[in-house]
TrEMBL record:
It comes from the Bacteria. CDD domains: CAP_ED. The lineage of its organism: Bacteria, Pseudomonadati, Bacteroidota, Sphingobacteriia, Sphingobacteriales. Residues 38-122 form the Cyclic nucleotide-binding domain. This is Crp/Fnr family transcriptional regulator. InterPro entries: cNMP-bd_dom, cNMP-bd_dom_sf, RmlC-like_jellyroll.
Length: 195
């Protein structure tokens, strides 16, 4: 089995997916440690997403840029979870988004080419990846519904219910962007909503 460095990945996979021991060992074998600096761009717009990441420590975000350079935060990733620009990863298309480390981050990463090879060789790993992608899509659809149907306060409360620790991990300007709320309104919610 993996060394201590890879234990968080092994534990996460064992907890959330059903893989035999040989499949788990095959899945973990190609991962390598990577340390990202604060504000380091891991994937840029018009770049291929070359890696799947597993977060050991730190916070990252995926964001979009409009033609004027305005940012819209789409997703946060933090331990223990997988990260990267999912659509670019799965379709081998150039990324439309930026994946950035908001804080110094301790990661494991594996080249996408290795993941695709494992999926072709091992049906258990292929099922696990497909399930993970389906769960990510379900989460994104739920978030899209929240953005379109909820008031600012409801979105704020939903975020606190889902991830209460996020307020201490992520600068509030990025949380406001993630919720589609003006930064001033976000500050008002912070002061008025009982946490």
């Amino acid at each position: 089995m993996p060394t201590d460095h890879y234990q968080p990945l092994a534990q996460f996979v064992a907890k959330h997916f059903k893989l035999s021991r040989p499949s788990l060992e095959s899945f973990i074998a190609p991962w390598l440690p990577y340390n990202a600096l604060r504000k380091e761009v891991l994937t840029a717009v018009d770049e291929e997403e070359r890696y799947l990441y597993f977060i050991i420590d730190g916070v990252q975000r995926v964001y979009a840029l409009d033609s004027r350079g305005k940012e819209a935060t789409l997703v946060f990733t933090y331990a223990p979870s997988f990260g990267g620009v999912l659509d670019a990863m799965m379709t081998a298309q150039k990324s439309k988004y930026v994946y950035e480390a908001l804080t110094p981050s301790k990661l494991l990463r594996v080249p996408i080419i290795e993941i695709k090879k494992l999926m072709n060789e091992n049906s258990e790993i292929a099922q696990m990846i497909n399930l993970g992608v389906s769960q990510a899509l379900g989460g994104l659809l739920e978030r899209l519904a929240e953005l379109q149907l909820m008031s600012s306060e409801e979105k704020f409360r939903s975020l606190l219910t889902r991830s209460p620790h996020i307020l201490t991990l992520v600068p509030h300007k990025y949380l406001a962007s993630y919720l589609g709320i003006d930064a001033t309104n976000f500050s008002k919610l912070m002061n008025s909503v009982k946490i």
